[in-house]
Amino acid sequence: MTEASTTQEPIPIGSMVPLSGTSANDGREFRNGLTLAVDEINAEGGILGRPLRPVFIDSGRQTAEEVVRAARILIREHRVHAIINGYNIGPQNSEYEPIADAGVIYIHHNTLLQHHDTVASDPDRYFGCFMGDPAEYWYGQGFIKFLSWLSESGQWKPHNRRIAILSGPKPYSIVIANAMASASSEFGWQLPFPPRIIRTMVNDWRPIIEEVRRHDPAVLAVTQFHAGDLAKFHLQFMEAPMSCLVYLQYGALHRTFSNIVGDKGRGAIVGTVIGLPRDEMGRHFAQTYKAKFGPHTTPEIGCQPYSSMHHYAIAASVAGGTGGPGAFAINRRIAKVLLNLPYRSVAGTVRYHPKWQAAVPYPDATRDPSLGLPHLFYQLREPEDPPALIAPEPFADAAFELPPWL
Amino acid sequence: MEQPGEEQAGPQHLAHDAEAFMGLAHGAALWSPDGTLLTCNPAFARLFNCFAGSIPAGIGQRQFLDLVEQSGLLVQSSQAGGEPADAGRLDILSGRTMVFSDGTVCRIVGSPSRGGGTVTLCLDATDATRNARALERARDSAVTADQTKSRFLRAANHDLRQPLASLKILIYSCIASTNEAERSQALHAMDVSVAIMEDLLGALLNIGQLDAGKVEANVTTFQLASVLERLRVQYDHQAREKGLDLRILPSKAAVKSDRVLLERVLGNFLGNALRYTEVGRVLVGCRRRGHLLRIGVYDTGCGIPKEFHEAIFDEFFRIAEQQDYRKHSLGLGLNIAKRLAHVLGHPILVDSRPGMGSLFAIDVPIGNVWHSTVGVQEINERIGGEFAGLACLVLEDDVHLRNALTTLLERWGIEVLTLEVFDDIAARVAGLAGRPDIIITDYRLRGGVQGTDAVNQINDVLELPCPAVVVTADTSPDLIASIRGQGFPVLIKPVSPSGLRVVMHNLLFEPELVPELS
């Protein structure tokens, strides 16, 4: 049986999450998010009367081998109708192949420009592959606009227009660094040196910091994203701070970062292209999430598979049901609905770009906040305080303040 | 004498007539011989619904018209051929054209009734009037366009003939000449003439599009810096050739305009400035003025007397004493700029005095930097991928595989270099267009050359080990182990893009993840 059915047999939904290894914290949040969404959907009768049954496979270190293996197990052994998860850093789209062969829906949050390329290379084959958040490319362009906005609105007066960029070795970091570099000149910023790709993460950032200091930049952007690496960097930067804004990629939002850095983190800028706006929907979700999974959990991460699970359930209901491996017809209908039906999730509006099959970011790629996932910019405050959400409008709820070292 | 038909006008027929009268789609009213209203049909009552209740019976036409006009129901009421003297006339409605406030146009037709009175019919002429007006406008615009075109063609004909005549003479000279220097000089002059004709035809195309209303503004918010940079690239060489100092001051502003049309306006200003400035400087700079950004092109040229400040924007206008053939100005640039600025809704201005240089400027709305779009519309790996800007040397004999691989790599933003002959590696590598960052080689190359050997030789030439991946269709475990033993990762054909991507990424950025290298 592959086509839509009216039986009460549960629909298996796969999820490839890092439940062990360095990203296990994120993996647990992804599992929480999917679990909460499945519980809510099942409480309302499931998809056209059929309940959902989540199946989690540990993607461990998130290498191509581990993620592909997880996808194969979900498809062959569990006959899942869809795979919905957070992000896996290492597979580089290798997992698309078994998923495309099976013709099931796959929604992930890998935040990779590679997704655009893979889908565009053969839209018919990869019809079911969706990225529930915008590509990391937008971090770069959006950050440059953010800097220009800070400067032109008079909130910050840079002493020059130089941006120093340090990148980690993963494609995610490199693409963000490249995107920052390519957008810089158009907005009147200059790079004193091309993005520096640090191939092996170091414990001692001081030599690189000193090298950057010689260029006296107005902005220092670090696109490495592991909270631990960023914390080491930031503590060493704060030993003798430069007169520049500091941007830390995503991971500095994690509790691990503030636990290590403490109040020295105050003033650093962090961004995410998928997070929780502090509006009514976002706050309500956070409360529900913490009530269920504990006060020290992170709904900002769990919201990713949570939102995509709900979007999938709506799309499948509109399409007339779900289908497992080989059920191309029904899954193509679901994919079509996903593309045509924007969904206002707790993280903002997920509207898939018709060619990229990735969520469109606001304000980076649309001027309409109701038609894009907000690219949120935070400024860290005290370790026990939530970071201030300073841009973009209409989501911001706090004002930028000059970092204490400036 | 009674008419034949009137014999049948019995009570039954009268009832039929009354029913037909009341059911008419057009407004109709019956007036008595002394000009007072006897009755009207519902369509007439609906048309003149400005009375508190129904239209008062017995009302005279004069009073009726006054009340209707006072109510504001009509925006115009006129007699065809002008207002006749109404004195003594009882039927003053017939022959009128009434324009109602809702845009309806009615022509009032009157005819005598049997009893000596008048029947008034209100005929809806709304569509006919609109069509007539549209026709009138179309005719006027066609006449204007025709006149413009004739004037334009006369002037263009004149301007086109001059370089054409020169070209004929130069071709003749060139054919006749046996002297290489003379021929070269003539060819250069021919080049100039052709450039003039190109300019003229380009301008004609622009004007043609503007005349046809085909130029539409596609307004977006973008960084002005991108337009200024393109102008710098276009005009820098021209300025340097003329010994002028062209300075384009950087701008960080986001503006709301049409990127292409704005560039054409500024290009015309800049082209003019360079043409009419013999010594000194041409400067492009911006200044905020409230919510507008004034983009100005300043020059230290000959300047323009105030009396010509308007006329310089006319087609083919040139100030006689500033013209010489070398400048080959067509007098269209500023006209095009003015018309493009009109399409954009941006004001333009000129400030100039003879001997004091000129300023031509355009005021553009300042945009929101968050809405600013960058030049590229399509976001893909070619512009922002992790491999963008890197060079890959591909060694693959099979032309189909090589082409497929090249397409894939180029889609990832990689510049592809190839070597097809391996006899003299040093010379071949020296002939490459760039230095490779990574090598992808087939194991078995033409002439019995092994890919691993070729890579080793290339690395000797480069004097730096270039990371390399070997691809092979041979799945023999011994062979694969041997290649890996030499420190090269191996991929088995057909190579999957994702597999290749992982290996390339690791080789380039995370070599510790490549087992063969450890």
Automatic annotation (TrEMBL), chain A:
Keywords: Amino-acid transport, Signal, Transport
Chain residue ranges for the region called Disordered: 1-24
Keyword Iron (UniProt): no
Sequence ranges assigned to domain Leucine-binding protein in this UniProt record: 10-355
Keyword Cell inner membrane: no
Top-level taxon: Bacteria
PANTHER family in the record: LEUCINE-SPECIFIC-BINDING PROTEIN, PERIPLASMIC BINDING PROTEIN OF ABC TRANSPORTER FOR NATURAL AMINO ACIDS
Family to which the UniProt record says this protein belongs: Belongs to the leucine-binding protein family.
Protein known as: Branched-chain amino acid transport system substrate-binding protein
Organism: Labrys monachus
Lineage: Bacteria, Pseudomonadati, Pseudomonadota, Alphaproteobacteria, Hyphomicrobiales
Automatic annotation (TrEMBL), chain B:
Keyword tRNA processing part of the UniProt annotation: no
InterPro entries: CheY-like_superfamily, HATPase_C_sf, HATPase_dom, His_kinase_dom, HisK_dim/P_dom, HisK_dim/P_sf, Sig_transdc_His_kin-like_C, Sig_transdc_resp-reg_receiver
Entry keyword set: Kinase, Phosphoprotein, Transferase
Catalytically driven reaction(s): ATP + protein L-histidine = ADP + protein N-phospho-L-histidine
Pfam family, one: Response_reg
EC class: transferase
Entry protein name: histidine kinase
